[in-house]
């Protein structure tokens, strides 16, 4: 079990330790080991094996950290990770091939290509809500692209963090892949170093700190943040299916503690009661009459977050708007699925990402008004709409800006490896999943091949009007113009 | 005064946000009209542009056309013919499990863009990024460099006459204006300039989580393998001279910074270079032709200090004279200056070419790798395996074989740095992409809702999902059929 990555509790991981960590990884990277296809494949296969061999340990750790239901742990973390790994293994060879590009007459004769190369030594900072997936999925991208990588799992999910440290230490190439556990001091020490890329999943406040630290070294950064992901619900829909999908995308995702979970609903005043009734019926079907003891719901991750979420209900003007649920069990950090109707616009719940099992429903007279409401807030990571009205769908896609959009479902788009997953504005920058993971940890180097033949003297001094004419023609790509200039017309 | 300035800036930015919100910049007609307007502006005012660049940098009109006007026109024409294609959604593949569903990636403008322009290509590096931002449907503020004042005025006076002034603004000024601009919230910042200022821009942008593209520089080396054919050596000499002193007298991010060559070939190459220099720029250092001047006294003094450092002065083998009145420096070649001197540790950005000799040209790879990653690496060689080695073992924004500078006009290649030379890229479609957000869109229908997606959970659903993630459709079907016949189709059989 002895892994040299795990520091004994007494020694602290400070700036000195971080510096020598990066130096060691740079040495490994410079030696060229991580660039080979064989190495990348062997590491990805090890990740797959680690996941398969220790499925139960992972599920157990997720249960400890989040009371995550077994099936949710499997579906949203383990299966997603395995799928991502297998997809990458299948496609990697193709992704590594240089891309030939066209050249124009301006640079004739020449040939050109874009060569993907690893950035070098990269840092992945993970989050607590999908602590297994959000640690290893970016690591898959980093390794596939040929980098050496340091993973800093979230300390708020400690069981998963130490399991990752243990397992990666056993299965992976320790000279190139390292796990550093810890909290703010360790993360700060890491952020002081010069990385070739930083990939951060978390919230906007820390995102700013990461970006500012990266600026000192001109390190490019990917930020996967969150936002208030809205769900617009029209009346012309299949109500039962809609209700189920909303529930799956809200309480079925770590009990609302997910960056893409449905934050709030926007629907018409007329339709709201029907929607609420349908949600209530399906909620009982899914979680029974005593949701606080249901095995199929995650708990709130920590007492800090429990206090944060319950505080959102503290306001009298808000508590009075509860139409379903509202109970909680502080000892077990459980909050029941709670629906609210028409809370005031200026309350805390409507101005912060909820990240919990409270679902406010906002009503409007016209659904078109919902676009304005959404656009008046910061751009979220995802936005959803349930409707069969083609024009409304098109208006939604055109006018709502978010990381990603999903029509008639919630959250599912993350499982598609062909769509880029990432935010915009306050919800983040950069994207990953599938090929986008490879790309985000890659430098696409432009390469131009020229020969000694075909030298246009018009490029060089002494400059003359004739050369000016030829240059004009050359740069415009106008063949007739070139010929005329060449023969001195 | 500063508060007034701040207020004025705030109002301009608010107006641009309002314009963006109105949706006017989204349609293809608006974007094309603005691109056409830039093309017309450059056509109508070619002489004024020649004049401004002559004033700011002493550039010859042919150099101006080659490096600035021509580049802008080519870029505008290319964008006009491609923008509609670039705007179209990209259809995405979908695994069968998602059926029925449709996925696509839809590019959309980021919103409000700030472009910082450097002083060395003050027209091209304003208008080219501007065209990228416009073709992507954004509103834009262009901040020209105060160190190229004639061009800055030209842009401030002329752009409003041709472009939609509610969507594109030019804001002139110095460091204080730049700092004020950085306090605003932008949806994207595009910066071309030095690493020092790049850090400041990125730090300020971090406060608003604003994505940035940094086009910086570095010491762009040229690896010169030993050539034997005199006609090839001649071409190489021209391209090296053209790539060092041609672009703004070496004051360019992709200009050759220093040259690596084998000891045995060095003197031959130096002779050819000297001949080429006198052909290109004339014999008289007091009256150099076809050469830009140094931008200002400050930069001139910086370069003078380098040349007058005794340890460096000792290595000058050609040129070295300075004309303080005209701010010109003669094309200068140095042979093996000390590697720890400023000239070999900082980006030169001037007409001084250090030549470093090696025993074997293969050593050039380690030499380059022990320094920060540059924006471009140039390599003159006919040895294919050496080319492959350079590509595999060095890292830079780009690599060009057997030529210099010309990768800049190749629209199909991304132009940008890595490491200390920056991140992000542009040119051609990459310009459009760098100012866009690629929004993922997944369309689902209500038809075929999968029960196993929902709780309450049980073993059947677990099994279903296992197979689903393997995209093992056969087993899914068997499972569905076998649900009633648990004994025959038990998980053990199917595993």
UniProtKB/TrEMBL annotation, chain A:
Q: Which GO terms describe its molecular function?
A: aldehyde dehydrogenase (NAD+) activity
- The keyword Signal appears for this protein: no
Q: Which reaction does it catalyse?
A: an aldehyde + NAD(+) + H2O = a carboxylate + NADH + 2 H(+)
Sorted UniProt keywords: NAD, Oxidoreductase
Active-site residues, record numbering mapped to chain: 224, 259
Spell out where the chain crosses the membrane. none
For the keyword Oxidoreductase, the answer is: yes
Protein family: Belongs to the aldehyde dehydrogenase family.
This chain belongs to which protein, by name? Aldehyde dehydrogenase
Instruction: Supply the source organism for this entry.
Output: Actinidia chinensis var. chinensis (Chinese soft-hair kiwi)
| Organism taxonomic ancestry | Eukaryota, Viridiplantae, Streptophyta, Embryophyta, Tracheophyta
From TrEMBL, chain B:
The record's Gene Ontology biological-process terms are: aldehyde metabolic process; response to abscisic acid
- Where does the record place the catalytic residues? 215, 253
| Oxidoreductase is among the record's keywords | yes
Which keywords appear in this protein's UniProt record, sorted alphabetically?
NAD, Oxidoreductase
One Gene Ontology CC term in the entry: cytoplasm
Is Translocase a UniProt keyword of this protein? no
SUPFAM superfamilies noted in UniProt: ALDH-like
Its family? Belongs to the aldehyde dehydrogenase family.
**Protein name per the record:** Aldehyde dehydrogenase
- Source organism per entry reads Actinidia chinensis var. chinensis
């Amino acid at each position: 079990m002895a892994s040299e990555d795990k520091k004994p509790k007494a020694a602290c991981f400070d700036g000195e330790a971080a510096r020598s960590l990066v130096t060691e990884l740079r040495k490994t990277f410079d030696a060229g080991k991580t660039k080979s296809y064989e190495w990348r494949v062997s590491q990805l296969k090890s990740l797959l094996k680690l996941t398969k061999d220790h499925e139960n340990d992972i599920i157990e750790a997720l249960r400890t950290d989040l009371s995550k239901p077994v099936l949710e742990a499997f579906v949203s973390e383990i299966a997603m990770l395995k799928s991502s790994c297998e997809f990458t293994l299948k496609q990697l060879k193709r992704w590594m091939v240089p891309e030939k590009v066209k050249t124009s007459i301006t640079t004739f004769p020449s040939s050109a290509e874009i060569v993907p190369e690893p950035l070098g030594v990269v840092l992945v900072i993970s989050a607590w809500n999908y602590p297994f997936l959000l640690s290893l999925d970016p690591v898959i991208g980093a390794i596939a692209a040929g980098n050496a990588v340091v993973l800093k799992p979230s300390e708020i999910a400690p069981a998963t963090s130490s399991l990752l440290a243990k397992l990666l230490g056993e299965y992976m190439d320790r000279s190139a892949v390292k796990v550093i556990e810890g909290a703010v001091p360790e993360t700060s020490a890491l952020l002081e170093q010069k990385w070739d890329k930083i990939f951060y999943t978390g919230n906007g406040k820390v995102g700013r700190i990461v970006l500012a630290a990266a600026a000192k070294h001109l390190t490019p950064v990917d930020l996967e943040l969150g936002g208030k992901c809205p769900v617009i619900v029209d009346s012309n829909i299949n109500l039962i299916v809609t209700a189920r999908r909303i529930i799956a995308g809200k309480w079925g995702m770590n009990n609302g503690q997910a960056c893409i979970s449905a934050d709030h609903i926007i629907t018409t005043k007329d339709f709201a009661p029907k929607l609420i009734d349908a949600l209530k019926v399906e909620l009982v079907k899914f979680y029974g009459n005593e949701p606080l003891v249901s095995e199929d719901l995650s708990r709130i991750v920590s007492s800090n977050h429990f206090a944060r979420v319950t505080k959102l209900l503290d306001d009298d003007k808000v508590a009075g708007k509860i139409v379903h649920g509202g109970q909680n069990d502080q000892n077990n950090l459980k909050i029941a699925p709670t629906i609210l109707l028409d809370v005031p616009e200026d309350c805390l719940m409507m101005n912060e990402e909820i990240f919990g099992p409270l679902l406010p429903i906002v009503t409007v007279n016209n659904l078109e008004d919902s676009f304005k409401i959404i656009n008046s807030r910061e751009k979220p990571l995802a936005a959803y709409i349930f409707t069969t009205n083609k024009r409304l769908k098109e208006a939604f896609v055109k006018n709502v800006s978010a990381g990603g959009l999903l029509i008639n479902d919630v959250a599912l788009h993350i499982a598609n490896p062909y769509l880029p997953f990432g935010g915009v504005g306050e919800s983040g920058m950069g994207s990953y999943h599938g090929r986008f993971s490879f790309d985000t940890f890659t430098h696409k180097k432009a390469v131009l091949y020229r020969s000694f033949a075909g030298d246009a003297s018009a490029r060089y001094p002494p400059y003359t009007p004739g050369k000016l004419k030829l240059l004009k023609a050359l740069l415009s790509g106008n063949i007739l113009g070139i010929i005329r200039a060449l023969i001195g017309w | 005064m500063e508060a007034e300035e701040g207020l004025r800036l705030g109002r301009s930015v608010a107006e641009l946000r309002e314009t963006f919100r109105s949706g006017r910049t989204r349609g293809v007609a608006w974007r094309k009209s603005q691109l056409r307007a830039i093309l017309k502006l450059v056509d109508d005012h070619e002489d004024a542009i020649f004049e401004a660049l002559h004033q700011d940098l002493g550039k010859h009109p042919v150099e101006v056309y080659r490096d600035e006007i021509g580049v802008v026109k080519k870029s505008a024409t290319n964008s006009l013919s491609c923008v509609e294609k670039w705007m179209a959604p990209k259809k995405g593949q979908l695994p069968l499990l998602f059926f029925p569903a449709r996925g696509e990636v839809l590019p959309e403008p980021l919103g409000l863009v700030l472009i910082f322009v450097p002083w060395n290509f003050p027209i091209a590096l304003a208008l080219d990024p501007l065209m990228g931002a416009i073709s992507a449907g954004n509103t834009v503020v262009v901040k020209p460099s105060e160190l190229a004042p004639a061009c800055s005025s030209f842009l401030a006076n002329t752009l409003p006459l041709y472009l939609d002034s509610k969507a594109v603004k030019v804001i002139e000024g110095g460091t204080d204006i730049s700092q004020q601009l950085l306090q605003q919230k932008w949806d994207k910042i595009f910066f071309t300039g030095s690493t020092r200022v790049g850090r400041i821009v990125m730090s300020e942008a971090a406060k608003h989580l604003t994505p940035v593209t940094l086009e910086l520089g570095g010491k762009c080396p040229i690896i010169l393998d030993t050539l034997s054919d005199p006609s090839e050596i001649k071409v190489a000499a021209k391209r090296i001279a053209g790539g060092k002193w041609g672009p703004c007298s070496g004051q360019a991010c992709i200009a050759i910074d220093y040259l690596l060559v084998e000891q045995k070939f060095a003197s031959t190459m130096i002779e050819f270079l000297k001949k080429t220099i006198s052909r290109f720029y004339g014999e008289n250092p007091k009256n150099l032709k076809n050469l830009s001047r140094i931008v200002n006294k400050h930069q001139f003094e910086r370069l003078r200090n380098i040349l007058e450092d005794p340890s460096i002065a000792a290595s000058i083998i050609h040129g070295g004279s300075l004309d303080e009145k005209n701010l010109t420096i003669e094309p200068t070649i140095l042979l093996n200056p000390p590697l720890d001197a400023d000239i070999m540790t900082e980006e030169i950005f001037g007409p001084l070419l250090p030549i470093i000799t090696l025993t074997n040209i293969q050593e050039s790879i380690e030499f380059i790798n022990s320094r920060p990653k540059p924006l471009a690496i140039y390599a003159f060689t006919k040895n294919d395996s050496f080319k492959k080695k350079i590509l595999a073992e060095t890292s830079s924004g780009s690599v060009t074989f057997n030529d210099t500078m010309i990768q800049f006009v190749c629209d199909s290649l991304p132009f940008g740095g890595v490491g200390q030379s920056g991140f992000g890229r542009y040119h051609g479609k990459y310009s459009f992409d760098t100012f866009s957000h690629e929004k993922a869109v997944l369309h689902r229908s209500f038809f075929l809702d999968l029960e196993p997606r929902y709780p309450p959970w049980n073993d059947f659903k677990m099994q279903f999902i296992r197979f689903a993630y393997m995209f093992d459709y056969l087993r899914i079907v068997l499972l569905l059929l076998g649900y009633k016949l648990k004994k025959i189709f038990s998980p053990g059989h199917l595993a």
